Amino acid sequence: MMNRTNEATTVRYSNGWRVFEWTVFPGGGAVLGFILAHVPGWIAALPWFPNQEKIAELAEVIGPKATVALVVVGVLAGGFVSLLAHDDIVSVMIDEESVTIKGSDYEASFRGTAVSGAFVDSKDLVVLGSHGEELARQKTDLKPKELKAGFSAHGYDWHERDPYGEEFTRWIDGASSLSQDAHAILRTRQAAVESDDAKDLRDLRVQLSGHGVFVREEGKRQYWRTAKN
Q1: Residues 6+ apart with CB under 8 A from 13
Q2: Dihedral angle at the C-alpha atoms of 153, 157, 160, 165, nearest 10 degrees?
Q3: Most CB atoms closer than 10 Å: which of 93, 95, 173, 182?
């Protein structure tokens, strides 16, 4: 068991990962663009390949300017992938006074006295309250062992799996066990699940928690539970 510490712990991606992210993806895009520019020429050198005349004409058309254009497009595409990856970057700040989860467009902070523990469910960091409620469920690729070390160091329970996992029930629209308001939110949220709208998924999860309903996804299906009394 790890000794408790008074110094705040921050779990986040290293600067090395950020350099890797902004180097490899754009660089890989540039290499891919260069390769694509030379593919017709390489194919034209294969006498057995069909449509040789058309391929040879295409190879002649692709000159230095077209090659540069494809490389630039590759760099831009790689940069776009880096931006998408950056959106998933999350940092978690933990001490005895509070737990704060911060993303590129999201930040939530919870008093330490309100937090009972945490765990990782698939790729979601879940922070639990004292009555089993989910205070937060945030997608992240942070290493579970680092999150475990951070929460444990400040006296919070760390669960190796969801202690309430068996209480989740698949959502069936109109089922009598949920209120009409909860069903309405879940119907709207199902559309967000289908479209992978991360912001709507998060916002509607917060709305559901206001009704005492906590939700997770498995593929395109929603599962829900309530907190213990």
Answers
A1: 89, 91, 142
A2: -150
A3: 182
Is the separation of the CB atoms in 196 and 137 below 8 Å?
no
* CB-neighbour burial class of residue 34 (10 A; exposed 0-12, middle 13-18, buried 19+): middle
State which amino acid sits at residue 221: R
Residues 110 and 208: their CA atoms lie apart, in Å, by 18
Kindly report, residue by residue over 149-196, the tens digit of the pLDDT: 999 999 999 999 999 999 999 999 999 999 999 999 999 999 999 999
The two three-digit tokens of residue 192, written as one number? 């967000």
Nearest alpha carbon to residue 124 among 165, 171, 167, 95? 165
Query: How many angstroms separate the CA atoms of 128 and 118, rounded?
Result: 6
Pick from 72, 74, 85, 78: nearest CA to 25: 78
CA–CA gap between residue 131 and residue 206 (Å, rounded): 17
- Show the low-confidence residues of the chain (pLDDT under 50): 1-3
Greatest alpha-carbon pair distance for the chain in Å reads 76
Cα 30 to Cα 74: distance, rounded to the nearest angstrom: 5
Q: Beta strand pairing status for 115-121 and 157-158?
A: parallel
- Cα 111 to chain centroid distance, Å, stands at 24
Please state the φ and ψ torsions of residue 221, each to the nearest 5 degrees.
-105, 145
